[in-house]
Amino acid sequence: MGDREKNVVHDDYNDAISSHYAAYRPPLHQALLAEFFQTSGRGEIDIALDIGCGTGVSSRALIPYCKAIIAVDPSIAMIEQAILTTEPWANIAYCIGDGEALNIPDQQIDLVTFAGSLNYAKSPSLLKELKRVCKPEAHVIVYDFEVHLDEWLLCLGIQMPETAPMHYDHEINFDDCELLRRNIGSVKTVALDVSAQNLAHVLFSSTGRYNRLQAKFQGEDAFHQVVKRLDRSGLNLQIKATTYLYAYTQVTSVNQ
Residues in domain Methyltransferase type (predicted)? Predict the structure, then answer.
């Protein structure tokens, strides 16, 4: 979860798709965290906890703001990939686990983040653990985003088939939790300028899109054909996304 990147969980990735996925990700984690720190005025964090860290994208986005980061995910494969793609100097400790049973002493955490992972993680047991491990007045950030690519697929002559909707809620948050007081609530659409090559990497980074693009453009050079098509389109190359950001302060100490 986390940046568990829902596509990684549900798609049967091959090496080629994984390479596109690794080559470029829209910097939405960084933008949402920057919005939180600018809006809240919060300074440097001593210890942050990233629950459902997935491949570590969300954890690495915390580096500029935190002295130390603990990142947990229940998937061994995700944690292994996160370690492989994180610089050795980074202040991140990756752990296999989940938010319901954290191997962390009481009142240690100053900031908790859920990057696209709360839909899978939210439970009474999670809330109990947050109350235990967080310092009084700790911050909890819930954020997510939905990237919109249909216009670019249509530009390339591809229409994706209708699929059954996933039981996934981008807007899930902690508004119903008395333990937490909401300070920030933001849902908006953003547009990021990208190169043709980076836009193509995003288009090729899921199994469904990859297979249709390969079939349309025939063969190993399909990626380069798509880059040329996008370059020659004359359109303003952007990736649009709906972003969701909710930030909370813990209002009840562990002793209450």
Answer: 49-141
Q: Model-level pTM?
A: 0.85
Q: How far apart are CA 219 and CA 227, in angstroms?
A: 14
Q: Is residue 240 within 8 Å of residue 191, measured between CB atoms? A: yes
- Per DSSP, the three-state class of 62 is coil
Q: Are 173 and 246 in contact (CB under 8 A)?
A: yes
Could you give the CA distance from residue 104 to residue 190 in angstroms, rounded to a whole number? Answer: 36
| pLDDT 10s digits, 94-128 | 999 999 999 999 999 999 999 999 999 999 999 99
Listed residue (14, 1, 25, 27) closest to 210, CA to CA: 14
| Other CB atoms within 10 Å distance of the CB of residue 28 | 23
How far apart (Å, rounded) are the C-alpha atoms in residues 146 and 244? Answer: 9
Q: What is the CATH number of domain 6-146+168-189+242-250?
A: 3.40.50.150
Residues forming beta bridges with residue 66, ordered by sequence position: 45
